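Forwarding these from the shared drive since the link keeps breaking.
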Amino acid sequence: MSDIELRHLATMAAVADEGSFGRAAARLGYTQSTVSQQIAALEKAVGGAVFDRPGGPKPVRITPLGTVVLTHGRELLAKAQAMAAAVERFRAGDGRVDIGTFQSVSNALLPLVVRRLRDEHPGCDIRLFEEETDRPQVHELDLMFFDGRVDGDVEHRKLLDDPYLLVARPGTFPDGPVRTAQLDGVPMVAHPAVCDQARMEQALARRGVRPHVVCRTAGNETVLSMVRAGLGSAILPRLAVHSADVGSDASLSVHELRPGLPPREIFLLWQAHRTHSPLAARAIEIAVEVADGIAERA
């Protein structure tokens, strides 16, 4: 049975549909002898005749064995055609891409990437997985946005630097830049101490600055709501500040820090040595272009 080939089954289906070897040959673009050879090879593989050949103008008739072979053969042909179509769509980019992300990227950068991907490939399947973690599971995804470098079997592409800004209620600090030394002991609303948040707080500590963290929450909107409520100020990456349109909010003021803190670095990660699908490769290209545009406007 291992000698059965899809071309043998396709020829058999053509003979069954047309009722003769000659018409099947014309439909397939074969010679009649080629059709005869392929049916003979199929019959040898299945161990019996698949057609009765009455001769003359009478049509060939499928045998009981041939009915079994043709029923399963048509299923295999349909699956092969579906696979060929799927491969074609994959090569064109209309496949599936799984992307890991985190909230400020999800709000500011990723929507632009997704919109362009869907405009170019309307049939694509984009799946997003958002998580705030300091141990990204890159191997489970095609691509992952992450705010830091990752050791191990991972490749990366740096997208942009994301400087930190101070967000406070108006009047909490004088207008203009705020010196980081002024933040020592100041009530602060902060993200959980994972990912780049921990690195930012360590950078402050090395300068002898230890704000008094009164609340930790993973949500950018919750951080800003607590700042509006007067619970404390917040140090947030520029991407998070701009995506929340804080500049147009009269209940908040934004300050640069002097001297500035090391910026958060945003990377696109993927498992090393992975062959990208055309869709994933295009997603990387678009992400780089979008990040460049954001950096230029900053």
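-- next protein --
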Amino acid sequence: MTSQHGKTVFITGGARGVGAEVAKRLRAKGANLVLTDLDKPALDAITAELGGEGHVLPIVADVGDLASMEQAAAAAVAKFGSIDTVVANAGIATYGSVLAVDPEAFKRLIDVNVMGVFYTVRATLPAVIKANGYVLVVSSLAAFTSAPGLAAYHTSKAGVEYFANTLRLEVAHLGVDVGSAHMSWIDTPLVQDAKADLPAFREMLNRLPGPLSKTTSVDKCGEAFVKGIEGRKSRVYCPGWVGALRWLRPFVATPPFERDIRKAAPQLLPQMDAEVAALGRSMSERTKNLDH
């Protein structure tokens, strides 16, 4: 395990949810923090909670814009001298089937969840290499499974898992370790918004088998992330059982495993699409507002 005291950790999506929880835990261990987000009020609030800008650098930045991330990385090095760890955490979700989801919302999700990871890593990697540091790419259980109405999200999380796998091979000889994080449903604003907007989403969760229907606390997820960062782990799972699905992946996309969700889809997917149409948006109101 490595001490985080005096280390600089760069976290995207750092104002709320898992990003903010990881920031709190690492600040308690003496780390310097660079937190990027589009939500300035939330970013200001977490910065104040962490003691102000002496050891915290808040930056309003869009991970979907390379120049913005390059400026954030330069500001981090200018203030703290290095970037030791990067947590590519920023992510959004969209609602609706492939035939119903707003194409612009789908594209925005890919811009944030996939291109945002690439831009974050591209901008910070030179400093991380100098520090022989660590990169944690936040993927999901969604990289191993599928659920109707969430095609964009599953696509993005599978993509960034393989991005992390490839990056690991490219930088290992440079003294940099790379991990990917895989979580089940976590009680973050992303999941809270989907539950509030879509009764069909809540019903789908209820119909998932066993632990797949459960939502885990942000606190537990933050604890797992910090352990992964300290151990420079190749994979971080929360809850721990998520790791088993990585090995069961060849069987997950088979009819026996998909039986229950296939039975539910003819009812729940039209219901979800109708709810999305009634909302007049394919993402949460909070996410939509941050993009404008």
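The beta strands are 8-12, 32-37, 56-60, 85-88, 134-138, 177-183, 235-238. The longest strand covers residues 177-183.

- D.
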